[in-house]
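Quality-control log, excerpt.
Job 1 of 2 completed; input and output follow.
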Amino acid sequence: MPDDPKAILRSRKLSDNETSYATDTTTDKTSKVPLLAVEHLVKNFGPVRAVDDVSLELYEGEVLGLVGDNGAGKSTFLSLLTGYYHADSGTFRYRGKPVAHTSPATSRRALKIEMIYQHLDLAPDLTVWQNLFLAEEKRKFKIVLDKRYMIRRATEVLAELASKIKPDDLVGALSGGEQQVVAIARALLFERDIILMDEPTAAISLNKVRDVLDLILKLRSMGKSVILVSHRLEDVLEVSDRIAILNRGTISHVLTNNHQMTITELAQLMFEGTIQHAVSVAGNGKLAEGSD
């Protein structure tokens, strides 16, 4: 790291595996109860420990960037949050209360989590309102679809996002950025507090990236919390309040984003553990043949 007074000036120990680099201590949230707290999460796949004793907190109305190299454990961590994978050990707390987190249903209902994948899980041949209520349709007397109610609620939630999309628009005719709006609208419709976004700007045109970033900031202004996973470090630095770095399954740093850090500085922190590990292994004569 360069010794630059405008960059990351000091560090303080948070736990055995977390360090915060910050110039502004006014954003310290230690006195608040986290919206979501995961403690000592572990996930093994045979002999491989994909998530290794991860503890992390997310606060109400916060954008938390989650970055790391390929294979760092980001996807596995998100899958633990959504209930797609079950943790081998560790605990989950929502607003300070422990939650027995065992399934995607628990994730949505007890932890108030909605996952928005890079390749959006939308039905292109259906309208916006049909996508919003897909598998959660409202019915009159539990029999007849209440189309009027669903269109009205779709209109309301799209207005909350200041979107020009209409409930009757065909999803397949929307741009990538507009489809992101539909996916986020579904999270709002069912009152999720936490939105996980996996590479939301990876599959859209550059001129639509700004729209997605503005949407993330809009969610924060509405009191929602976002965990943003992205390889576009410039996006993470722009909208995140804090940034967590995953390295070989562990949290190596948690940074308070003072909006003075450069992409180069963040990349150095991301890769320093990987480089140090490779050097250490090579020094012990254990570097596998053919390794880069």
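Job 2 of 2 completed; input and output follow.
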Amino acid sequence: MRDIRIGRAFTLIELLVAIAIIGVLIALLLPAVQSAREAGRRVQCSNNLKQIGLALHHYASAHGVFPPGRVNSHVAGRGNTWGTYSQLLPQLDLSPVANAFNFDLAPDLDPANTTAGAVFIAPFLCPSDPGPARRAQDHYGMHNYPACVGGLHPVTQAPVDASGAAIAVRPDGLFSENVAVRLAAVGDGLSNTVAIGESIRSVPGIGFAADRLNGFVITGDNKTIGPPITSDADYAALCLVASPPGFQVTRGSKWHYGAPGHSLYNHRRRPNDDRVDCRGGLPHSDKSDPAWHQLSLDVAARSRHPGGVHALLADGHVGFVKDSVSLPVWRALASLAGGEVVSSGSY
């Protein structure tokens, strides 16, 4: 007769140990997978900015200047504040979108511009940001890449304070209102001057109490002209308050609209600063002068990438700037002719 041997089965303890080992291996593997995915998203985000950089230089080759940070007609009741990207559409191979806009009308209030304004443009969206591609309330297209106004608060070249008195400080960055900068005017060098930064997209329905970084504070009450921010003391007094006068969950919306938080930011604070972002004045397109000249901002660069943000330099290359960058270096990178010397190793 043949010997029939019955194989030894797993005991319950051995099975549990095997399951535990598999669980540990999966736990060790998941962060590596997530890290690899984020690395891929970071590469895509950097490539988006490189495309924008190429478009900026195509524009400069055609016109001899970079596009303005925003174009404002200063016509009472229809400011027509068109942002940088509205001028850059042909260089991004988006002439059909440009042709769908009526640039004689307001970009955000006139129904004629609703359809083109609702277009979301894939190279404007960072894949690391889970925010919406369109704003649910008004369907405007979102984006992650605002233009840099510099390291100071004003946006306009003739800013005034709440009393209407002139402010001596002017924007010192590549993009501001109604100014088109020649390449030769970038005295600090194109490779040392930030053109476009990175920001996050607001998620609808999340207010100040739930996430104060999901939008930005307005220094007024959304119906009157809020006081402008003319100094760091103004920022602290007007913006760092328990109950801000206004909070807009519109960060990154209206890529074609030239306003702080929407398509403009500055380097007054370091990347991903944990304090609230803020905009002074209320420069919507239905307002009139001197409301436009009170426009100011303290809006930091932000991203969903661990440890820092991407920045497109004016020569077209993209760098990753750490959150720990020194504030003087970060501000120096924002100025176009400040005379600072910045080495690539300092950020």
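Post-run check on job 2. The chain has a mean pLDDT of 89.
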